[in-house]
Amino acid sequence: MSSIFNQPFGLTWRKALLSAPRLVPDAALYLINPDGPHPIVIKIPSRGTHLIPLYVFIPGASKLDTSTSIEPTRHPVLLDFHGGGFIFGSCQEQAPWCAKIARELNAVSISVDYRLGPAAKFPAANEDSEDVLNAVLDPTKPGYQELRYLINEYLLRTSKRRIELDVTKFAASGFSSGGNLALNLGLNVRSSRVEEGDLPCLFPPSYARDIPLLLFFPSLDCRQLPSERPRPPIMEQQKASFSISLELESTLMPTYLPRDQAGHPRASPGLAKIRDGGLHDRVKMLLILPEMDTLAEQSHIWVSKVAEEGRASDLTVEEVKGVVHGWTQFPDSWLTEEHQKLKLDMFNKARDFIAQAWK
């Protein structure tokens, strides 16, 4: 793997600037996520030589818990992916959402610190997301035993508790580029080139329960760089300008995803086939669309595609007026009271969408 320090200086400082939130100590999560639970950070093996860091939010876990029971309790699983265009972003910004699902649905929320560019190259993020899903589902895969051991070792040491993961109740959520990864988990990608091979969905066809995928303003078509995407009319009317950010992303994204690979359905899951088993039969999707988002147009195109290929009944769309891309990940102190309410409303709808599938 190439190191970020081998990149041109201009590229390195741009990456450092965008990665600044990752330098915030995890203790800061007590400020942005006061209700908890607060995550433990563990690392599990991948298919390669690297370890994958996970932020794990465990319901009811507390160092103040004096329970002496070690009878394991069973908990559903949420697998979560942060955004950032595959070149920045962090699990820390996911804390309010992941903790909410842990608290209110009694689930173990796992936010994946997948590899980013320019140090990593496509399909590194996809491979990490698949490896973590396999660690949840498949006892024969790397990470399965380690995931459970590390969680329970922490719980036994701090609160005399043990848990089991209820793999019959699973959900995945993703924000922006993380939505790209979440949707990928539900797809059977059939390659037109024999040498590439097919990329089958990791959920068995016989999976017995609905699989909710929460897609918050996802990146579905990476053939356009951020600076090339059309802006919705309201962004032009209000003279909203995100040019500096879009230009930085456009400079960095090709270091992870080369332009000649951007049309691969794994890189652009909005292009993948839906009908005839292209999308797992048990997948149910919730799509959150901000009005002021350069990704909105490709999402609308994909919504039409889903309908044309016979899965409209498995897709729920929530369009949110007056908010920008990524507003749910902003600290509440950055948001107006109205936008805070919209954020809470969307998180509640997403929670209820998961709960319906897990009934």
CATH domain topology: Rossmann fold
CATH-assigned homologous superfamily = Alpha/Beta hydrolase fold, catalytic domain
What is the number of helical segments per DSSP (H or I, 4+ residues)?
Answer: 10
- The overall strand count is 8
The major sheet is characterized as:
8 strands, mixed
| Spatial strand sequence of the major β-sheet | 1-2-4-3-5-6-7-8
Distance between the termini: 43 Å
Mean pLDDT across all residues, rounded? 87
Query: What is the CATH domain class?
Result: Alpha Beta
* Low-confidence region ranges: 1-19, 61-66
SSE arrangement, N to C: HHEEEHEHHEHEHHEHEH
Beta-strand percentage range: 15-25%
Category by helix and strand content: alpha/beta
Helix percent reads: 25-40%
| CATH-scheme architecture | 3-Layer(aba) Sandwich
Shape summary: globular
Organism: Calycina marina
Domain Alpha/beta hydrolase fold-3: 79-328
Protein name: Alpha/beta hydrolase fold-domain-containing protein
GO molecular function, one term: hydrolase activity
